[in-house]
Design brief:
Two copies of one chain form a homodimer.
Chain A lengths: L3 E2 L9 H12 L16 H17 L7 E6 L2 H13 L3 E6 L2 H10 L4 E7 L21 E4 L1 E2 L4 E2 L10 E4 L16 E5 L10 E6 L16 H6 L9 H17 L1 H22 L3 E3 L11 E6 L5 H10 L2 E2 L10 E4 L6 H17 L1
Parallel strand pairs in A: 1-13, 3-4, 3-5, 5-8, 8-9
Antiparallel strand pairs in A: 2-10, 6-7, 9-10, 11-12, 12-14
Helix pairs in contact in A: 1-6, 2-6, 3-4, 6-7, 7-9, 8-9
């Protein structure tokens, strides 16, 4: 029996992607070699890399708009420092909406002055700050589009004359946005794009070359854009599986189609959280709720072992909340079927009947 | 028909590793989840990471000797800068034996003074420099154990009071050495350890904490050792396949057993290069020849298309030399069977008969 996988990341990918990835490990495209043993300079892999870059930009509506797509390594955690290394000359503004923003701020402070433009730390990040003003004279403004741990999501993005930098690790390719508003978008692959081990970087080339410090080659966006993301050996398999996932998304109808499905899944779980007296949502304001990660707790903690038994019995995996929040977290990335959310809702309803 | 894969890296891995990796992509250890969709904090993956670290140290004879094994991202190219970021306070010594040493030197110069202790650049890196002296007062001494592009290999390592740092990307786990001589060993996985996307770092903890600069978290060895290589999401699949490959090596009898097999393969190809009047080796001195990468050219360039036809016809892949050297390169990593080398030797003999 296939599990209903609500893991926060690494997370579920489409079943057809798993099958194609397994096939490629045994014999890639019928060339009698494994995807794991071919040269990254082979014609076959160069074609994979080029198509993945092309498709990422195309799905985001950024083709021919001065952007490059890179598949790097090191996760968003490496981007926290790379963004600052490449872009922070004097002063940058950060919006602090959770654990990942806080970590990004910590790394940026090694490279220049950081202004915390807005923060929801005062209420353990259970809301998205609004009505703040962005000062002028910043090198860039940084935000986190979706907060995996707390279950909040930015619905509006700040406006500024400075380039907008966004960590979209946990909701890229999940909803339609005007991506051309951003100067730099980065995302660990392991939510909506692929397996762990690749990091997508979408960069507007015109924002580069404005800091005076020397940048080590592997941390220099210009080095990677100049080499079409092949400066050194890329994470071949993770890039290939990301390509398979992007192809699946395109065949599904692209971002607007998946956004509709994601909205339906989110409405299903949040309706139940709001209706069922045994559950309460973690996020203070409904408009700040994430369509990717629904965080909730039991109103009566003594029901925990009963509820845990119910959802585990139903074949659900990965529902425990992060230790910073407690309770439960239902991560509903692109590849999670609506049926899995239905199974979870039924477990919640079953608890209500039994309690 | 399975190819005879002489690719320089990413390269051949054991057939049983490909099979187990493909199985895990569909259903990991019978838990009804793919290795690509499980949390890196799951009990299953934590066990993989711990065993991979334990086995790497054990195979190298470094258990309980003050070393930690890390599985990071970014390849040796990232280690070029991390080594200097973490260890270079004033002055470091580098032995320049090829393209990778040259790149390591370039990155280190951003962090302090670099003394080139020895170099074979004067003859396009076709030999290993010897009879040089290591100055005192260095923060560390850096060398490259095997030069993939040129086909040379260090047989003796420099001695110094300073920690010895070694890029072993292309020959780690291929031969017995006293690994406790080294303070830091790093290696991209994609030769003898696994697929691209993971980088093994073996570090003696006592050499850390001696530089005064602030180090970004992801570039700080202490951060990674403190979190047992789980500071952020590791490259899950690449670590798992590395574990499978290390298990295969252990079952083969470990490094001493594989060294014997590697020596036999190298003797087979070098004997033919020396015997066959149509071929000549690139490396000037026989004692500097690499047991991993044999570089050679045709004595008569007009035979190129005939020879290329012969080895391709025999099912050989990845024999073209690097553009810096030209000619041919037979990469014979741990997983390459002796039979594949025999097939290549037969193609070379066939050319002699036809010519």
């Amino acid at each position: 029996m296939k599990k209903h996988n609500f893991s926060a990341g690494p997370c579920i990918l489409p079943a057809e992607v798993f099958q194609k990835a397994a096939d490629a490990v045994l014999n890639f495209q019928g060339i009698d070699l494994s995807i794991l043993e071919i040269s990254h300079r082979s014609a076959e892999f160069v074609a994979v890399m080029e198509e993945a870059q092309h498709l990422a930009l195309s799905l985001l509506g950024l083709s021919d708009k001065g952007y490059k797509a890179l598949f790097l390594q090191g996760g968003a955690s490496t981007q926290f420092l790379m963004a600052a290394y490449n872009l922070l000359e004097n002063k940058a503004g950060y919006i602090n909406t959770g654990t990942w923003s806080t970590k990004a701020i910590k790394e940026a402070k090694l490279f220049g002055e950081v202004v915390e433009i807005a923060s929801s730390k005062d209420q353990n990040f259970n809301y998205i700050p609004k009505d703040f003003s962005v000062p002028s004279g910043l090198d860039y403004v940084h935000c986190t589009s979706n907060n995996t741990i707390f279950g909040t999501q930015l619905k509006e993005f700040p406006t500024s004359e400075a380039p907008l930098v966004c960590d979209m690790s946990s909701d890229i390719f999940s909803r339609a946005l005007d991506f051309s508003k951003f100067g730099l978008i980065y995302a660990g692959a392991q939510k909506n794009m692929g397996p762990a081990g690749a990091t997508l970087v979408i960069i507007k080339e015109s924002i580069l070359g404005k800091v005076s410090r020397s940048i080590p080659s592997m941390l220099d966006y210009s080095v990677h854009t100049g080499k079409e993301s092949m400066f050194n050996t890329p994470p071949v398999f993770s890039v290939y599986v990301s390509l398979l996932t992007l192809q699946w998304l395109q065949n599904k109808g692209g971002i607007s189609a998946i956004e509709k499905a994601n909205t339906e899944k989110a409405e299903l779980i949040y309706s139940e959280i709001d209706r069922n007296p045994l559950f309460t949502g973690f996020v203070a304001n409904k408009e700040d709720r994430s369509n990717m990660n629904a965080t909730f707790t039991l109103t009566d903690a003594s029901l925990q072992s009963t509820f845990d038994g119910l959802w585990k019995e139903a074949g659900i995996n990965g529902l425990n909340g992060h230790r910073s929040v407690g309770g439960y977290r239902a991560s509903m990335y692109n590849a999670l079927p609506k049926e899995s959310v239905q199974v979870l809702v039924e477990a919640m309803q079953q608890l209500e009947k039994q309690a």
